[in-house]
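Dissemination and training. As part of the outreach component of the grant, students in the summer workshop were shown how a complex can be specified as a set of sequence lines and then modelled as a single object. The example used during the hands-on session is reproduced here so that future cohorts can follow it. Participants entered these lines:
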Amino acid sequence: MAELDLTVIPTPKELAVDEDIDLRGEVCPYTFVKSKLQLEEMEVGQTLRLILDHLPAVDNCPRSFKNEGQEIIGVQPINDDEWEVVVRKLHD
Amino acid sequence: MPSYPNIDLLVSTDWLAANLSNPSVKVVDSRGAPRYAEGHIPGAVNLPVARLDDPTSPVRSMPHPAERIATVFGNAGLKNDDHIVIYDDGPALMASRLFWVLELYGHQKVGILDGGITRWIAENRDISREATQVTASSYTATLQRNRLATRDDVKAAIGTSSVLLDVRSPAEYTGAEAHSARGGHIPGARNVNWEQTLGGMNIPAFKTDKELTELYEGAGLSPDKTVITYCQGGVRAAHSYYVLRLLGYDNVSNYTGSWGEWGNDPSLPAEK
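and obtained this result:
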C-alpha cells in the first residue's frame, strides 16, 4: 500500500511566527480554506502557524500550500493530539 | 421539515426538544472542545471528530479499528441501542463524518439534527455551558465492511457498473487545483460537488428530496447503484455518503483514503 509520508519538519527554534490560526476542531476542507484566507491577509515574508488536530489536514495543508508556491517552514507534533504547520508567504 | 426516503436519518429540532430527557436518546456534539464549551445543546456529550481517526494508519483519514472505536464510543457514554443524534454548527460536515463512522461500525439508530445547533439557537432553545457528566459504557463495534471502500476496492470498481462519485470542487476534479502530488480524478468518476447538496443560507439545510434526486440522477446515480464517494480526505465524502443514505441509497461506501491516498500514488491511474 502506498504510504503517506507525514514528514516532520522541525520548526526552527528561533523562529517567531507572525500569526497563529487555531484550527482545532476544524476538518477538511475548512482547515485549508481558513488558513489560506488568513495568509491572504498577511504580508509577503510573514509566517503563519496552523494548529491542527485533524490528521488529514496535517498532510493536505502543507502540500496545498506548496502547490500554491508558498514555503513550508515546519510540520511537527505539539503533543499526542495536535500538530503545527508553519507556512511562510512567498507571494500574494 | 422536508421529507426524504430515509427521513429517520434526519432529526427535527422539535423532536429532539421533546426527547432530550429520553434515556435512550444520546445527543452528540461533534465539534471541537472549545466550541462545545462555548455552548451546546443541554445533555449533549462532546465527541470531536478528530478522536475518530487512527494516527498509526498509513491511510491518514482511516478511522480507528473496531476495538479502539468501541473505547472511544464507550468513553462518550454511548451504548449500542442508543438513538444517537449528532450535530455541529455548520453544513453537517463534522456531524456526517461521525455519522459515517457510527454506521461503519454497525450502529443502527443514528441521525443528524436538521439545521444543527444553528437552528436550535435560532429557535431560542436552551443552551448549556456545563460539560455533561458522562458515565463510560460498554460498546461493541462491528465493522460493516460494505460501508468502507479501500484503494483496492476502488481499483476493482473502475470500469464496472459501480459509480465512483468525486464530491470535490470542479477545480479539484479537473486538476486545475491540486492538493496531492497529482491533480485530477479517479478514471470514470462523476463529479457532484458536495456543496451542491446544500440549501438554506443562514441556517444549514439540505436541498429537497426532489432537488437532490435530480442532482444525482443528472450524474448517472440511482438508488439501485453501488456508489463509492471520495474527496481529498474522506470528510466531504462522508457528507455526500450521508446525503445519499438520506435519499434511500443503501449500497454506498466512503473511500476515506480519497485523493489524499490516490493522488499521491503514481502507480494508480488518474485522468483530468
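Residues 6 and 62 of chain A are 10 Å apart (CA to CA). Students were then asked to discuss how this feature might be tested experimentally.
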